[in-house]
Specification:
14 strands, alpha+beta, single chain, 33% strand, 6-stranded mixed beta sheet
């Protein structure tokens, strides 16, 4: 086997990309530690929500990491009518990740320690939006079905993008802190980047082979802090003729809120609507749910 390895191995808070050119497959691996703690620390989330949001942030990094360009962005939003979790949203842009969940705390407490996805969302849906460097937007909406958000994302790729995709996500909380990690593998028949996919076969023998190998990944492997992401790719695909790894973006908590940002947004509204937003002191108050900060805009 021929292997291209980065000069330094990757362990956490950085994306790792890899390709199996002989199988027309590509993948991403990520493990979140410090970045996960930063995002979750903005709110006092109960355990079921930290687990859910941790999974969403991993998925956001894996899917967002497929994009190229510093202005390209992936946004994932899960919503329901009357569900315990009213809104879950996360996005990714150039290595910056952020996420937020709004939920009914009283109803959540009645669900126990490990509620299912159906118990949290009921009849919900997942909307995934990709915005390219050239500002083109692509969106797909799928039902929130299955055992996890990862399963819903697999459905998105198979139905909306027609790309066979396997996703595995794991998370853990303990005395050492919280960790979440994931693997995404895709088959691109006749479709390396920049080329039209002439055909897509979900039962392509190359894809079946790659999916079987990728499906052997265990939660302990994904979460093991002593196991590099390169080592994970090696373990899974060491029998392949060639595996090329590409170090990806270093990940950060990426809330983009600022006084200037919100002033620019408010300035787009007509003067009478701005007046309706003002408090008795004449100031417009804006709260950022992503980072739990408040801004007083005297405009």
């Amino acid at each position: 086997m021929t292997e291209t390895i980065a000069t330094a191995e990757t362990y956490s808070d950085t994306l790792l990309g890899f390709t199996l050119q002989g199988r027309n497959a590509r993948g991403r691996i990520v493990r979140l530690e410090g970045v996960l703690e930063e995002v979750l620390s903005a709110h006092s989330y109960p355990a079921p929500i930290t687990h859910l949001l941790g999974e969403a942030l991993v998925l956001g990094a894996l899917m967002g990491g497929l994009l190229k360009g510093e202005h390209a962005q992936m946004t994932m939003q899960a919503q329901t009518n009357g569900g315990v979790v009213r809104l879950l949203v996360c996005d990714y842009r150039a290595g910056a990740v952020r996420g937020y969940a709004d939920f009914d705390a009283e109803r959540l407490a009645k669900l126990g320690a490990n509620p299912s996805l159906a118990a949290l969302f009921g009849e919900g849906y997942l909307a995934i939006t990709f915005e390219t460097e050239g500002r083109q937007r692509y969106q797909g909406i799928v039902p929130l079905e299955g055992d996890s958000l990862a399963a819903a994302c697999e459905t998105y790729f198979s139905q909306s993008e027609q790309i066979p995709t396997l996703i595995r996500v794991a998370s853990r909380s303990g005395a050492g802190g919280r960790t979440a990690a994931g693997l995404l593998v895709q088959h691109l028949p006749d479709g390396e980047e920049g080329r039209e996919r002439l055909h897509v076969r979900m039962d392509h023998p190359d894809w079946e082979h790659v999916a079987i190998l990728a499906g052997t990944i265990g939660h302990d492997e994904l979460l093991d802090p002593a196991l590099s992401l390169e080592a994970i790719a090696w373990r899974l695909f060491h029998e392949e003729e060639e595996v090329r790894v590409q170090p990806g973006a270093a990940l950060t908590r990426g809330c983009r809120c600022s006084t200037a940002h919100y002033e620019a947004i408010i300035a787009r509204f007509p003067a009478d609507e701005q007046d309706e937003m003002r408090g008795e002191d004449g100031v417009i108050a804006v709260d950022c749910q992503f980072c739990s900060r408040s801004f007083a805009l005297a405009i």
